[in-house]
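Figure 6 in text form: structure in, sequence out.
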């Protein structure tokens, strides 16, 4: 079950967008019969580079969603972005889930589906190509997507780690675009943040 639930006006809730990815009904057999409860997988983001996910469990659906939102807000991460896309391509394996995130040119849109799309959209990424293999379990898919987003690094971060200037890593034109936080000319984003001295991109792997 999926959908959107409006935020309340209290605190910072109005600043965050939330997405109900899945609601499961769980039945526990006891001596007097069955007891039903619900678990809700919630994704929360500020549509500007911060996103988190959480699971809430309760006897009522609304309470499970509220708990899931609280957990998600406590576990938000910051996603490096270049304009409206991600800085480089990522391949990651998380349990039985294997996912790929790839930057896209402005105007491409979010080419994704299911649980991955909920994470990407609430993070505020507008242009991206994704692919998910293996399990279709939404919990594992969401966790794998968040782990992949945590592996992203901007060109400036990679240059600092290697003790180089940004221009030496990506060239003057791309460096100027990155510093201006705007999409590089012609959508030249793919692997630019992970290039070495020979210009070959490095793929981030997770396990």
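Output sequence:
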């Amino acid at each position: 079950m999926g959908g959107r639930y409006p935020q309340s006006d209290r605190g910072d809730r109005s600043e965050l967008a939330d997405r109900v990815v899945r609601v499961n009904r769980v039945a526990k057999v006891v001596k007097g019969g069955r007891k039903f409860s619900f678990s809700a997988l919630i994704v929360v983001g500020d549509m500007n580079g911060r996103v988190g996910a959480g699971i809430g469990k309760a006897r009522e659906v609304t309470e499970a969603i509220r708990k899931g939102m609280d957990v998600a807000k406590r576990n938000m991460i910051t996603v490096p972005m270049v304009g409206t896309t991600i800085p480089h391509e990522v391949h990651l394996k998380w349990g039985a889930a294997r996912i790929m995130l790839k930057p896209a040119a402005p105007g491409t849109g979010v080419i994704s589906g299911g649980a991955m799309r909920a994470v990407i959209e609430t993070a505020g990424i507008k242009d991206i190509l994704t692919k998910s293999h293996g399990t279709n379990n939404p919990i594992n898919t969401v966790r794998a997507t968040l782990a992949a987003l945590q592996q992203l690094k901007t060109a400036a971060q990679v240059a600092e780690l290697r003790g180089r200037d940004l221009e030496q890593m990506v060239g003057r034109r791309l460096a100027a675009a990155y510093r201006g936080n705007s999409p590089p000319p012609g959508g030249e984003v793919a692997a630019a943040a992970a290039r070495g001295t020979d210009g070959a991109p490095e793929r981030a792997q997770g396990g």
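Caption detail: DSSP finds six helices and eight strands in the chain.
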